Amino acid sequence: MLFLGYDENERKKVLGRSLKGMCAAEPGAFQEIITPYNYTLYRNDIEENRVAVIISGGGSYGPLFMGFVGKGLADVACEGDFDCAPSAYALYHIAKIVHRAKGILFITNNYIGDFLNNDMAQELLQTENIDSRVCYVTDDMFSASGEPEANRGGLCGVGVITKIASAAANTGMDLDGVYAVTRKAIERMRSVTVQYCEEKNVLEFGAGFSGEEPKLVLPYNGVDDMARQIYTCAMDELSVYFPKEVFFTINRMRLLAYIEGFVITDSLKTCFEEADYKVAGCAVGAYFDAFSGSGCIATILALDEELAKYLPVVRGYDFTI
Question: What dihedral angle (degrees, nearest 10) is formed by the CA atoms of 269, 270, 276, 277?
Answer without folding.
Answer: 0
